[in-house]
Amino acid sequence: MNPLLQKLQPYPFEKLRALFQGIEPRAGLKPISFGIGEPKHPTPPLVRDAVVNALGGLSSYPATIGSEPLRQAIATWVKTRYHLPAVDAATEVLPVSGSREALFALAQTVIDSRSTDPAEPPIVLCPNPFYQIYEGAALLAGAEPYFVNSDPARNFACDYSAVPDAIWARTQLLYVCSPGNPTGAVLTLDDWRELFALSDKHGFVIASDECYSEIYFDEASPPLGGLEAAHTLGRGFERLVMLSSLSKRSNVPGMRSGFVAGDASILKKFLLYRTYHGAALSTVFQTASIAAWQDETHVRDNRAKYLQKFTTVTPMLAEVLDVRLPDAAFYLWANVGRTGLTDTAFAARLYADYNVTVLPGSFLARTAHGTNPGEGFVRIALVADVDECVEGARRIVEFCRQLAQP
């Protein structure tokens, strides 16, 4: 067996199941889950209809490179969304089977684990807290993850200035997540300027995970993307790829449909890897994806639902927890310190007493530089409908007030 598999940690939801083992929630309360970031809004009819109408494609093997119409639809969307002068559908766009698969596979393509000194393997820089795929991808590529802690003073964006130059010199891949999971933080243009300068100096690739980019709260101010930042700063896409997905944008997580865009030379090698990897997107879902990428009405309607939930629920929870509206995405990152409980104790007791599931922040982070930046926080995924989110928030408020009673 591959010995690197022994380095992988249990996924956060495995830890959550272990935390809840033996707990029987209070009878009579319908379960409400804010734990998993799985969209619960209905799939748009235009996507469902496109799937049905494309079922004849099941008789054909899908091409790894994707169909030309799909690549063109994605290229047009990227160009429009990020105000770019041009995106080459033939060389700068590659459909993938969801951003999760691509985030993992990209590290296997990029990392050169050959090292003259085994004590100094290549580095993959990750935000902390983070999406655990980054860590697993790094480890199985023969690299060492290095975690950059989020900074509450910067609305939980990472402080990259704290990374030693010796670490940057060994870095081959940098994962950024903007808007972030779980904090919702969005990188600024100054952040991108700093990262591009470091990439130019040290030669590492930047993988910008932007799967939450279409969930934000001000229609006039969509989150800045990596390709957009590069263009704004007068540079090309060298050593930069962005990854996105229809899962959150269009409420189709079961389609596993996403794309990678950016540096054509990286995408050429990535396509070679994926041709052997065998993760081609179904022709049925390729056709449905075209319909999704070409329509913005359902995306605006989706954002409106999240805006209603966040503007209703956030003030409720702010009465008992330290929490504020994130930059973007569909999570609240709530500090539970006022309750006197740890994040794990908070989650376990809330589940037992009120049948509400939240995810402990410490499960989403690693202890790095003397601290686990997820400790004392819980991630609340506002993915259900408005009424269920409000009811869940009401129970959390009641739970916290009960804890405060002498």
Summarize this structure briefly.
With 406 residues, the protein is α/β, with parallel strands linked by helices. It has helices at 12-20, 45-53, 68-81, 99-110, 133-140, 165-170, 189-202, 226-232, 246-250, 264-277, 283-293, 297-318, 343-354, 386-404, and strands spanning 32-33, 93-96, 123-128, 144-151, 157-158, 171-177, 205-209, 240-245, 258-262, 331-335, 356-357, 359-360, 377-381.
Tag the structure with descriptive keywords:
single chain; alpha/beta; 2 domains; 8-stranded mixed beta sheet; 3-stranded antiparallel beta sheet; 15% strand
Structure report:
The chain is of the alpha/beta class. The protein folds into two domains: about 5-40 and about 300-405, Aspartate Aminotransferase, domain 1; about 45-295, Aspartate Aminotransferase, domain 2, CATH 3.40.640.10. It is built from 14 helices and 13 strands. The chain has helices at about 10-20, 45-55, 70-80, 100-110, 135-140, 165-170, 190-200, 225-230, 245-250, 265-275, 285-295, 295-320, 345-355, 385-405, and strands at about 30-35, 95, 125-130, 145-150, 155-160, 170-175, 205-210, 240-245, 260, 330-335, 355, 360, 375-380. The strands form three sheets. The protein has an eight-stranded mixed beta sheet, sandwiched between helices. β4 and β5 form a beta hairpin. α2 packs antiparallel against α11 (about 285-295), α4 (about 100-110) runs parallel beside α5 (about 135-140) and α4 (about 100-110) packs across α10 (about 265-275). It is globular, with a radius of gyration of 21 Å. GO terms for molecular function: pyridoxal phosphate binding; succinyldiaminopimelate transaminase activity. Keywords: Aminotransferase, Transferase. It comes from Caballeronia humi. InterPro entries: Aminotransferase_I/II_large, DapC_beta/gammaproteobac, LL-DAP_aminotransferase, PyrdxlP-dep_Trfase, PyrdxlP-dep_Trfase_major, PyrdxlP-dep_Trfase_small.
